[in-house]
Amino acid sequence: MPAVYVVLVVAAIGGTGYLVYRSQDFRKFLAGAFLVSAGVQFYLAWMGVSIPLAGTNAVQTPNVSWVRASIHTVLFLLSTYFGFVHKPRRAAEG
């Protein structure tokens, strides 16, 4: 069963990577998703909220929220740049 999970995760990452590479609209969508996620993570970290992980005894501490918020902010900036600002080059027609 773990092998099936690994295959599914690799397929999901590969599919998402393909969409990110090929679709500017998908990068625009990701920019918005990362903005919201970073905002929520910053808020929870700032308020000192520990988040229990469903089905486990583990807890996401505010320190982890700070790290996740920082990572999502960087991903938001990258997605915004490549989704809205950067214009892709057209293939040479010949």
List the keywords:
single chain, 94 residues, mainly alpha, two-stranded antiparallel ribbon, 2 strands, 73% helix, flat
Describe the protein in words.
The protein is 73% helix and 4% strand. It contains three helices and two strands. The protein has a domain of 62 residues. It starts with a helix and ends in a 9-residue tail after the last helix. With 94 residues, it is mainly alpha-helical. The radius of gyration is 17 Å and the shape is flat.
**H/E order of the elements?**
HHEEH
Instruction: Tell me roughly what share of residues is in helical segments.
Output: over 70%
Largest sheet: 2 strands, antiparallel
* Uncertain parts: none
Q: Give a count of the beta strands, DSSP E runs of length 2 or more.
A: 2
Label the structural class.
mainly alpha
Strand content is under 5%
Report how far the terminal alpha carbons are from each other.
Answer: 50 Å
**Dominant shape:** flat
Total number of helices: 3
Question: Whole-number average pLDDT?
Answer: 88
Question: Could you outline the blueprint of secondary structure elements for this entry?
Answer:
Elements: H1 2-22, H2 24-47, E1 51-52, E2 59-60, H3 62-85
Antiparallel strand pairs: 1-2
Can you summarize this structure?
The chain has helices at 2-22, 24-47, 62-85, and strands at residues 51-52, 59-60. By secondary structure, it is mainly alpha-helical. Strands 1-2 form a two-stranded antiparallel ribbon.
